[in-house]
TrEMBL record, chain A:
UniProt KW Ligase keyword: no
Swiss-Prot/TrEMBL keywords: tRNA processing
Name of a matching Pfam family: tRNA_int_end_N2
Species in which this protein is naturally found: Glonium stellatum
Protein name per its UniProtKB record: tRNA-splicing endonuclease subunit Sen54 N-terminal domain-containing protein
GO biological process: tRNA-type intron splice site recognition and cleavage
Automatic annotation (TrEMBL), chain B:
Active-site residues (renumbered): Y347, H355, K404
Region ranges (Disordered): 1-47
Domain tRNA intron endonuclease catalytic: 317-411
Superkingdom field: Eukaryota
Enzyme's top EC category: lyase
PANTHER family named in the record: TRNA-SPLICING ENDONUCLEASE SUBUNIT SEN2
Name of the protein: tRNA-splicing endonuclease subunit Sen2
Function as written in the Swiss-Prot or TrEMBL entry: Constitutes one of the two catalytic subunit of the tRNA-splicing endonuclease complex, a complex responsible for identification and cleavage of the splice sites in pre-tRNA. It cleaves pre-tRNA at the 5'- and 3'-splice sites to release the intron. The products are an intron and two tRNA half-molecules bearing 2',3'-cyclic phosphate and 5'-OH termini. There are no conserved sequences at the splice sites, but the intron is invariably located at the same site in the gene, placing the splice sites an invariant distance from the constant structural features of the tRNA body.
GO biological process: tRNA-type intron splice site recognition and cleavage
Single Gene Ontology MF annotation: nucleic acid binding
Protein family membership: Belongs to the tRNA-intron endonuclease family.
Entry keyword set: Lyase, tRNA processing
Any one GO cellular component localisation term in the record: tRNA-intron endonuclease complex
């Protein structure tokens, strides 16, 4: 359940349990077959399953050759700008962006911004379009005053892919906002996966605003609930029956927290045990760090699932929020960093009908961290898990009426899930 | 432990009939397979989540007015003679300096602590103290297969499957080579590898038989200590799985004592002593009060000289206890998670019912202004807070592989209570209340699987 969506096909089936083999005492006698002396290279002992192992059959080598030939033939097709969909863009060195005069393609449903008669492309948008061969970006031409602006001869030199990378990436002080290589890696990866990716907030802003969405609604709902729920009877009953903690200070100082005596339910006991303060996830978010560039964690992109309903003019709330960080320059966020980052995302509680584990994993606020290590992004979803809101003991008290407890049977998990 | 193990039983591959002596029909044909041994009623055994009793009032049944009288009777009788939720005699444990844990040797206490809340670990077992059961099984006194045996069988089966798969693959390649005319004659299959692999297996089987001790010692690798070599015994058929109360048969089998004891780690001890008040720990016969216990564990948690009386606010034991107490007080069963490279595992109800769903990693957080007051302190804290991404990826990978979700628990470290940087006066509750806990659930996000 935890990660059904993992790229681990070997987990299914019989060898799912390989993991707990480590419990056994290791037998190292296979090492004695190794020869470390002499000129010949030591033969590495074979352990486990290999995806691919070369063996001397010509079947294998011919399969490999066929696959390679197919790739080469696919790559050898010349890629051209067909005149019908040839889109020209001009690089604007002041803003580090590119503008398009005439829109001809479907791509512009999700990219670009119309401003002062031109369609402006963000650096990552222009670079991505150029890299996939859908855009012809030209270097700007210095024009003298008497030259005609619309003269077709005044077109600049085409921008090469190398040139585009050098031009668009970097330029921290530019108006178009900075584009780091990490940001572009994430942008291009998500675009290729089919998502609609938009830069979040204003382009210069390092940090978004605090997000109070849904919190007010929540308060109102709770207030009405309390009023109409006849809770007053429940409270009287509770007042009569629950044990009050006696001898507060002394009990806390030296324990035991559960003073010897009569207890009616385990709920009472657990309530008395709760002394460790906890973060309140329903309180309005606050920032605890100064708003400067020392904090590398901020929402970089808003991403939308490709549903077809997306409109550039009114994108609506995104499906996911991504914060891009460089794995080599940052470390695992501190609580303050994480807390500030999550404060800029909306309050998004799990649906009331979902299961306990799902609710905990969903959390009250969430963000996706894209950690880019030398061009390889790995995504981690961080959720503000509200363990203290989901009191397990209350569920168990409700659940364990039956003779058998109800848990634990028939979770067809397969084997080898470590304990 | 049991649900996965029992469900994985496949009887078709019986490795050695000797191991199945007590269940003689199992190696017969599939048609007359022995019924699967009945699982103990875990719901009943572990019905209490903590080693405390509760006395709920009888239910009020609206259409039965007599139930009111019953409630009144119970209330009044308990008013005059209130029963205690705590055990009549405090559980006893002994602090062991060598292992830095608390040992519990009394059988009843061991069972109570394990069954009610899953505290501690048997020193000769993986978690539940099961050494005696295993010993009895080896002597043929216990009809039911122990869970360790089932695990062993399952692993053996898996190993054989792998050898078989490798052999088939090799044969396919050879067949292909032969068709291509690269080798002329059918080459003999490399037997040495399989034989070599089979050898430790043989030993393991003998171990599980438990009656071929001399051959193992001859081998020199495994010393099978105090267990006397027994003559072959006819298995004693018992209708019920033997439990600790069947002392006579245990003695008859030559096991004088249950040599296993329960080890409680410091957090469990403090929770049982300070939180619940059911455990009394003594050191060389002298009982240790709770406050001293707290100091003792803090002192042992770091490599400082044990003379220093000061407790740092980010003492590792303190942090671990804060998190342990937090999750215990929410109703989770918290067990050490060192096996999965984390600090704790969280079980819903307990390990016999289901796998742990959450793996907890503790991260101290120095957010308070005290920690950034001076430059020197700031640099020190930055060093302490620095954890590289690969560290997180490693841990997250392990959790993904074992289907657990990683939970990072940030513990807000308060400034020291006094200016000398130490906590001198001991008020356990006050110390614990100064920490703040916040949990974050992590999981890998895969772009291709979240699109639709």
């Amino acid at each position: 359940m935890a990660d059904k969506d993992e790229d681990t096909p070997q987990l299914s089936g019989v060898n799912a349990g390989d993991i707990d083999l480590s419990d056994e005492t290791q037998d190292f006698r296979f090492l004695s077959n190794l020869s470390f002396s002499g000129t010949d290279l030591p033969k590495i002992p074979k352990r486990g399953e290999k995806d691919f192992e070369p063996h001397a059959t010509s079947l294998q080598s011919s399969t490999l050759a066929a696959s390679r030939a197919a790739m080469h033939s696919a790559l050898s097709i010349p890629r051209i700008h067909p005149p019908k969909t040839h889109i020209m863009a001009t690089y604007d060195p002041d803003t580090n962006m590119a503008y398009v005069d005439k829109i001809k393609s479907q791509h512009f449903q999700t990219i670009g911004k119309f401003f002062q008669g031109k369609e402006w492309l963000l650096p990552e948008e222009a670079l991505f379009m150029l890299e996939r061969g859908s855009l012809d970006v030209r270097w700007p031409v210095l024009r003298t005053a008497d030259e005609d602006e619309n003269d077709s001869n005044s077109l600049g030199v085409p921008m090469s892919l190398q040139g585009a990378y050098a031009a668009f990436i970097g330029m921290e002080c530019g108006v178009g906002g900075k584009l780091t290589l990490e940001m572009y890696n994430v942008y291009a990866g998500l675009k290729r996966a089919g998502y609609v990716v938009l830069r979040s907030g204003s382009w210069n802003n390092e940090r978004g605003a605090l997000d109070f969405t849904n919190l007010a609604k929540l308060d109102a709902r709770e207030a009405t609930n309390k009023f109409w729920n006849f809770r007053i009877f429940a409270e009287i009953w509770e007042m009569l029956l629950t044990r009050k903690s006696d001898g507060g200070a002394e009990r806390l100082a030296l324990g035991p927290l559960i003073t010897p005596g009569l207890y009616r339910t385990y709920d009472d006991i657990y309530r008395l045990l709760q002394i460790i303060p906890n973060h309140n996830r329903r309180s309005p978010p606050t920032f605890s760090l100064p708003a400067d560039s020392s904090n590398p964690f901020h929402v970089t992109y808003h991403i939308y699932k490709p549903t077809g309903k997306f409109r550039k003019s009114a994108p609506g709330p995104p499906d996911y929020r991504v914060a891009v960080v460089n794995a080599r320059e940052t470390s695992v966020p501190t609580m303050a960093q994480l807390s500030d980052l999550l404060a800029t995302t909306p309050y998004d509680p799990p649906s009331a009908s979902s299961q306990l584990y799902q609710r905990l994993k969903h959390g009250s606020r969430n963000i996706i961290l894209a950690i880019v290590d030398q061009g390889i992004p790995s995504y981690i979803r961080v959720a503000d898990a509200s363990f203290s809101d989901e009191k397990l003991y209350e569920r168990q008290a409700r659940g364990s009426r039956g003779k058998r407890g109800g848990f634990g049977r028939g979770r067809g998990r397969g084997r080898g899930r470590g304990r | 432990m049991a649900s996965a193990i029992y469900s994985a039983e496949v009887p078709s591959l019986v490795t050695d009939p000797g191991t199945n002596r007590a269940v003689p029909t199992e190696n017969a044909t599939e048609s007359q397979r022995a019924p699967r041994p009945k699982k103990p009623n875990y719901g009943q055994i572990h019905s209490r989540p903590l080693p405390l009793e509760t006395y709920p009032l009888p239910a009020f049944i609206p259409h039965n007015p007599l139930s009111i009288f019953r409630i009144v009777y119970v209330v009044f009788s308990q008013l005059f003679r209130p029963p205690s939720s705590h055990p009549s005699v405090c559980y006893k444990g002994y602090f062991s300096h060598e292992t830095q844990s608390v040992h519990v040797t009394d059988c009843k206490t061991i069972r109570a602590l394990w069954e009610k809340g899953f505290f501690g670990k048997g020193n000769l077992s993986r978690s539940e103290p099961r050494w005696l059961d295993q010993e009895m099984r080896k002597r043929g006194l216990l009809a039911q297969e122990t869970s360790e045996e089932v695990t062993r069988k399952r692993r053996e089966e898996r190993r054989r499957f792998k050898i078989e798969r490798a052999r088939k693959e090799r044969e396919a390649i050879e067949q292909q080579l032969r068709e291509e005319g690269k080798i002329s004659h059918p080459a003999p299959i490399d037997e040495t590898e399989t034989l070599d692999n089979a050898q430790p297996q043989e030993i393991r089987q003998q171990l599980s038989n438990g009656n071929i001790n001399d051959r193992i010692e001859e081998n020199g690798r495994i010393k099978y200590g105090r267990t006397p070599a027994l003559p072959e015994k006819t298995p004693i058929k018992t209708t019920q799985p033997l439990k600790l109360d069947t002392r006579h048969s245990v003695e008859a089998a030559g096991i004088e004592l249950d040599e296993e004891h329960l080890q409680l780690n410091p957090e469990e001890v403090l929770f049982l002593a300070y939180g619940l008040g059911v455990l009394e720990v003594s050191d060389q016969g002298i009982p240790i009060p709770t406050s001293s216990l707290f100091k003792l564990f803090c002192r042992h948690s770091s490599c400082q000289s044990p003379e220093t009386q000061s407790i740092q606010p980010d003492d590792s034991f303190l942090l671990k206890y804060v998190v342990y107490h937090h999750f215990r007080s929410l109703g989770w069963v918290v067990r050490p998670g060192v096996k999965f490279a984390v600090d704790y595992l969280l079980y819903n109800k307990g390990p016999v019912f289901s796998h742990a769903e959450f793996a907890v990693m503790i991260i101290p957080s120095y957010n308070h202004t005290y920690w950034s007051e001076s430059l020197e302190r700031k640099v020190k804290i930055q060093q302490k807070e620095k954890r590289d991404w690969w560290w997180l990826h490693r841990i997250n990978r392990v959790q993904t592989q074992v289907h657990k979700s990683l939970v990072l628990v940030y513990v807000e470290i308060p400034p020291p209570l006094h200016d000398d940087g130490a906590i001198s006066e001991l008020d356990v509750g006050n110390i614990l209340k100064r920490y703040n806990v916040r949990e974050f659930a992590l999981r890998r996000w895969v772009a291709n699987r979240n699109r639709d």
